[in-house]
Request: fold
Amino acid sequence: MSKRDFYEILGVQKNASEDELKRAYRKLALEHHPDRNQGDAESESRFKEAAEAYDVLRDPEKRRRYDTFGHEGLNGGGGGFSSSEDIFGAFSDIFGEVFGFAGGARSGGRRAQAGMDLRYNLNITFRQAAKGDEVVLDIPVSVPCESCKGTGAEPGTEMKNCGQCRGSGHVQQAQGFFRISVTCPSCHGRGKIISQFCATCRGGGQTSQMRELKVRIPAGVDDGSRLRLRGEGEPGVNGGPPGDLYVVMTVEPDKVFERQGQNLVLHRSVSFVQAALGDKIEVPTLDDPITVDIPKGTQGGEVFQLRGLGMPHPGGGRKGDLLIEIKVETPTSLSARQEEILREFAKLEEEKPLKKAKNFFKKAKEKVMGD
Reply:
């Protein structure tokens, strides 16, 4: 029997946003929740069907494959869920929002739980951001305690069954017409009561250690850019998947270049003689210095654009540009001979006034070099 369209199952359009998908799934999950429809095989089927559809469409890569190839692109439909408990485990955050219990509905203590995500703040230089780099991070992660093997109990001591949940790790609580299974508050889902906590981990079952991780910084990243490293966060609980690591970068300002998106701005001063008669000046780039022609009559504030000499785009594509803003310097100290020449120039200007230049202070003129 062919599977129904996932968008049809959730009742959304193909361009539905992540929030729209989530709201649609929450509505269906509440309507077909097993505790509300006990013994109803059709509702249970709808419950699993909606979970499978949401599991695929909430994942950008799975959704892209499904939109392109349909169910065939998911190697048999995206995996699905073998039981309602699997669904509660996969979407515990959503069921926690719906039913108001931390950890979600039916959160049995021994079920697999995903590890926590981690954030690492990384300071990099402007040159590292421009060229990319590989850095080694020291990540603090939690690992099972070697002394107690993750039980939290002092080796050699006994653990007794919890009297409140009778060793199951979860208890029943009423929420309206639902009866929800939640983690036992006495044993925190272990099903056992620790008589003596492990001296190494103090009953937590985990200890912290440093782990080295090599990270490749893409060329062109900007201040605040974030890298997501899947599976590099905290380890999962009871066989659950590990969390993710988010590397958030702070880029140090450069002493030479000012960054505007993927463009770089360089401020260069020339003398009024160079501006009037024209000249060649050397300017730095992200690679080797280059020579740039300053045409006759260049005005202060004029901008020259060097295509493709700016910052690269992290995702590929054309590089930004290098923008050279010219500042014309007026001398503050002149010799007697220099003053004499300028006075002669002023007389000549009175006899034949110079053509006034456009106001470049209001709007900088852009020149494309090398065209």
